[in-house]
Design goal:
The protein has 530 residues and is an alpha/beta fold. The protein folds into three domains: 275 residues, TIM Barrel (Alpha-Beta Barrel), CATH 3.20.20; 74 residues, no CATH class; 127 residues, 2-Layer Sandwich (Double Stranded RNA Binding Domain), CATH 3.30.160.270. The protein is built from 17 helices and 16 strands.
Length: 530
């Protein structure tokens, strides 16, 4: 089996994405996670560009890694400056890494317009920079910036820049599609041609401006590269880089090419979501392999076939990348969707019945009214359990009142709530910065003595969507709430022409579902006195 080196540049190229900024601690955590999965190289940043990156490299000297080599990124020496006098190259030596990744110009247009120097001087800059770091004992990876554009503009000169890096002692020559505008067939043909003119192993670094970064990385492997650069989740400047969470499983499962240790591929979904969490970015549900929708099935025909053989509508088992199959229920569902969900939840229903058909009809009617259960699995599971499994509600609402008043130009909101919890009635009130917040506070105040676990439940997201805009302020709205306990998260839904009622439905379900998942451990050891 062939082996491809995986070089991650999430901490440098990925951090250049709009809206992403990693702290030093963030970068250390991600580097540790990448090392545990078996990545070969982790590029930590540009030590000559900012204090944060230098601090990261200093931290990593005290962090022994089992698999990954930490690489520092920089440019070749400046025009007219000796390599030993170049501040960027000296910064690489000072940061203590054993691997340096240098980028240089491959496109004559850039040499003339960006560097404002001669073609010969650019070749000398590449050769001497690589040779200098090699003389100091570092492995040097050479990133040939804008290589494909340079090759198409002046093939002979682009090849000459690679030979200059080769003469300097580079271990790998990485062909970069820096502007992301090259198409797969071009990449294949150019890489195949380059292989005939250099001896040093080749790598590939692709950007996604044309939407083909992953495809370009894969065809480059077909053409003979042995080193692939990219980022977790495809983070990167403009449209991003090749997504390693897609490249790696494609190489492993579609081409039988070794990258990470096979047993670690099942951690890819966790890696993807972990990096999103650290970056404070919502995961893309439609991301191939690792997205929450990557193995989600909605159509009744699909689910019916899945129950017979999963491969009818799945190209790999979701568990292979640490993901899971999800069967959604909506107005497009059939009985197979409900049957699958009951089996998934171990609710004991093994064949369809008249009750099942009635429940499916009810679900379709609710969806027609505006409910959307595919994005609110918490509410959907509660609905199934209430219908069939002798489900006991953790609390029931007897009365709810909200008071909103304006005093001295300021708005005050209070919620008064009366609940029945088992055989006891709880009556309490709480204020909030709005009616939903006040209801949330009052509900917590009423329930926490019975269910202490509620203290850990936090509202992560609250969304309101108007379903019939033409009705103006009388429109029906859908409220979607995401709640988490620090380990897991779940979503619930409510629909009404009254936003307070819709919010109550979603909020009450969010607590009920959280308590359901915690089971008996959620209950207080001592019931409060009546």
């Amino acid at each position: 089996m062939a082996t491809i080196e995986i070089y991650d540049t999430t901490l440098r190229d990925g951090a250049q994405a709009e809206g992403i900024s990693f702290s030093v601690e963030d970068k250390v955590k991600i580097a540790r996670r990448l090392d545990r999965l078996g990545f070969h190289f982790v590029e930590g940043g540009w030590p000559g560009s900012n204090p944060k990156d230098m601090e990261f490299f200093q931290r990593m000297q005290k962090e022994p890694l089992a698999n990954a080599k930490i690489a520092a990124f920089s440019s070749t020496r400046r025009v007219g400056v000796r390599a030993e006098d170049d501040t960027n190259l000296q910064a690489i030596l000072a940061c203590g890494v054993k691997v340096a990744t240098l980028f240089g110009k491959s496109w004559d247009f850039h040499v003339f317009r960006a560097l404002e120097t001669t073609l010969d001087e650019n070749l000398a800059m590449i050769r001497e920079s690589v040779a200098y770091l090699r003389s100091k004992g570092l492995e040097v990876i050479y990133d040939a910036e804008h290589f494909f554009d340079g090759y198409k503009a002046n093939r002979e000169y682009a090849l000459a820049t690679l030979r200059a890096a080769e003469e300097g002692g580079a271990r790998t020559l990485v062909l970069c599609d820096t502007n992301g505008g090259t198409l797969p067939l071009e990449v294949y043909e150019i890489v195949a041609d380059v292989r005939r003119h250099v001896r040093t192993p080749l790598g590939i670094h692709t950007h996604n401006d044309g939407g083909v970064a992953v495809a370009n990385a894969l065809v480059a492997v077909d053409a003979g590269v042995t080193h692939v650069q990219g980022t977790v989740n495809g983070f990167g400047e403009r449209c991003g880089n090749a997504d390693l969470c897609v490249v790696i499983p494609n190489l492993a499962f579609k081409k039988n090419i070794s990258t990470l240790p096979p047993q670690n591929l099942a951690q890819l979904t966790d890696l993807s979501r972990y990096v999103c969490e650290v970056a404070n970015i919502h995961p893309d549900p439609r991301q191939p392999y690792v997205g929450s929708s990557a193995f989600a099935h909605k159509g009744g025909v699909h689910v019916s076939a899945l129950m017979k053989a999963a491969q009818t509508y799945e190209h790999i088992p979701p568990e292979a990348v640490g993901n899971r199959r999800r069967v959604l229920v909506s107005e497009l569902s059939g009985l197979s969707n409900l049957m699958y969900k009951y089996r998934e939840l171990n609710l004991g229903l093994e064949r369809s019945s008249e009750e099942t058909r009635k429940l499916l009809a009810e679900i379709k009617e609710l969806e027609h009214q505006g409910f959307q259960f595919e994005s609110a699995e918490g509410s959907f599971e509660l609905m199934l359990r209430r219908a069939y499994n002798g489900y006991e509600e953790p609390f029931t609402l007897e009365n709810l009142r909200t008071i909103i008043e304006i005093r001295e130009g300021k708005m005050y909101t209070e919620a008064i709530i009366k609940l029945r919890v088992r055989d006891q009635v709880v009556h309490t009130a709480a204020e909030g910065n709005g009616p939903v917040n006040a209801i949330d506070n009052a509900l917590r105040k009423a329930l926490e003595e019975f269910y202490p676990a509620i203290k850990k439940m936090k509202l992560n997201d609250y969304k309101v969507r108007v379903l019939n805009e033409k009705a103006g302020t009388g429109a029906v709205v859908r409220v979607l709430i995401e709640t988490g306990d620090g380990k897991h998260s779940w979503s619930t839904v409510g629909v009404s022409a009254n936003i307070i009622e819709a919010s109550w439905q979603a909020l009450a379900d969010s607590f009920a579902y959280g308590l359901l998942k915690l089971g008996d451990s959620a209950r207080s050891a001592r019931l409060p006195e009546a």
